[in-house]
Amino acid sequence: MKEEQRLLLLHSSSLFFPPQGLSFPSKTKRYFFSILLLTKTINFFILLFWFFIGVKLSYGTAGFRADASILKSTVHRVGILAALRSLKTQSVVGLMITASHNKVTDNGVKIVDPSGGMLTQEWEPFADQLASAQTPEAFLSLIIEFVEKEKIPLDGVQSAEILLGRDTRPSGESLLEAAKQGISSILGAIALDLGILTTPQLHWMVRARNKGMKATEPAYFEQISSSFRCLVDLIPNETKSSKMDNTVVVDGADGVGGEKLEVLKSMLTSLVIEVRNTGKGGGLLNDGVGADYLQKEKVVPRGFCSNDVGLRCASLDGDADRLVYFSVPTSSSRKIDLVDGDKILSLFALFIKEQLSILTKEGTEKLDNSYHARLGVIQTAYANGASTDYLKQSGLEVIFTPTGVKHLHEKAAQFDIGIYFEANGHGTILFSETWLSWLEARNNELGLASEGSEQQKAALRLLSVSKLINQAVGDALSCLLLVEVILQHKGWSIHKWNELYQDLPSRQLKVKVVDRTAVATTNAETVAISPPGIQEAIDAETAKYPKGRCFIRPSGTEDVIRVYAEASTQEAADSLAGSVAKIVDRFLGFSSSQQ
Ligand code: 16G
Ligand code: MG
């Protein structure tokens, strides 16, 4: 490494020392720190570590996340990491400042890989090491070692480019500055600040840039609105004339999604979108609103009321990468009918399967029907068992992966068409390049042989879906448009859609434990392999309940163990979850469980 580069890194990281968690959120801590500085007899760093124990950050399921006041140094380091990633891959990467559905005082940072997906898992351990380096010197030697190991061209000759985005959190601006300073401490690295974006927009733009396509917000809106309009034009005449309600009311979670949807809605035809909780009315981000709140609490969000009974409603999370639907069944209760990610997945899977079977039906002579797309559906253990049964009965191949988009996405990419969704509303449909090229060719053939035929319409619909739906990551805005156009295509109300199958009653609990890393799991998180004996205890409890299913896993975003239980009645699901929470407590905990 050049001396100039070494000094730049050392200087820049000194500005952001002490590291994460050590940036004194309160006066008391500052005072305590001064005392520590004076205490020469005690090993300074051991004390520091002790003092901030519990705030050690890990890259987790979706980047680093914590109280915004302790994140500056971490974000600065992630800026450096992003520049290294860009140098290594010789491609554009992204850096997003968001804490998604967390409370407004939290924030977070994650890297978008050149493909538009999550940072490669191989770099996560290095991210963790960087975030916990305790001195600028230790930090620098970690970088030197890693740069050598990964053969990263850090000579100032190669250039690096990082696209930056942030959500609407007030802490976003100053954290973004820290990221910029991190990036500028790598010679040749350039940061391009794209301002306030949804997380999926940034993923989309990184992917687009690396494919040589236009990577601007207007280009994003143009692509998804025009493919939506194509799908609307291809709605069968029989359903077009049905008296379907074309209005959807969307809860924007008082975050970035609401304001972006306001722009998008003006570019659409045949759909009326009413956005509430846009973030402009003074409402607090994710506070009693948003997809995560609805999925967990199953009650009417702020801004909705008894007048909304029967309407088709949807809700985004704080950075608009999750979407759930709901309706208010009666004016006398706050309960909602939730239509979660599993049902969105089922709707998408049905539609794709239907179009594929039209496309490949026998009868069109001299055309190549031979490529039967391999269609896969990917879920996690949190998927409601009734959804899995429904999908399997519909003849679909269902595969399970551990929680976290990176796992689902990776699996989905192994199919010609891979549809993945988490119950929480994060998901998308991936189309392989090979299959899309075949589809383009097939569409051209059909255009010549039987223009306007049902088969050609099916080909056009599938091509439009591949442009509408975000190929980089789950995107609430594009998923919303796809749900809406499929409902119009089928002439379905939200109630009809919700009746595809009935969810099994379920309950989620979280348990605070001394050390959540003591729980290790296998089989897509359905079996706990440590601590020894815990799975046997869970199995024995589960066996007492008809249709019982239960698993535990350590959260990747909170310091808790999560418990999920399903059973034939709500009481039974509650009771099973409660008993297993006690088991977790007995094996690992401090005797406290809460929802
Ligand atoms: C993050 C993940 C989400 C996962 C959730 C689990 C991404 C973009 N998001 O929000 O996929 O379901 O974490 O949280 O990967 P948990 O580990 O705390 O249960
Ligand atoms: Mg989110």
TrEMBL record:
Top-level EC class: isomerase
Protein name as catalogued: Phosphoacetylglucosamine mutase
UniProt cross-references to SUPFAM superfamilies, sorted A to Z: Phosphoglucomutase, C-terminal domain, Phosphoglucomutase, first 3 domains
Keyword Magnesium: yes
Protein keywords: Isomerase, Magnesium, Membrane, Metal-binding, Transmembrane, Transmembrane helix
Active site: S100 (phosphoserine intermediate)
Transmembrane segments: 33-55
Protein origin, superkingdom: Eukaryota
Phylogenetic lineage: Eukaryota, Viridiplantae, Streptophyta, Embryophyta, Tracheophyta
E.C. code: 5.4.2.3
Gene3D superfamilies found in the cross-reference section: Alpha-D-Glucose-1,6-Bisphosphate, subunit A, domain 3, Alpha-D-phosphohexomutase, C-terminal domain
Cofactor(s) listed: Mg(2+)
GO MF annotations in UniProt: metal ion binding; phosphoacetylglucosamine mutase activity
Residues the record lists as binding Mg(2+): S100, D317, D319, D321
Ranges for domain Alpha-D-phosphohexomutase alpha/beta/alpha: 89-122, 158-210
Similarity remark: Belongs to the phosphohexose mutase family.
Sequence ranges assigned to domain Alpha-D-phosphohexomutase C-terminal in this UniProt record: 519-582
Record's function text: Interconverts GlcNAc-6-P and GlcNAc-1-P.
Catalytic activity: N-acetyl-alpha-D-glucosamine 1-phosphate = N-acetyl-D-glucosamine 6-phosphate
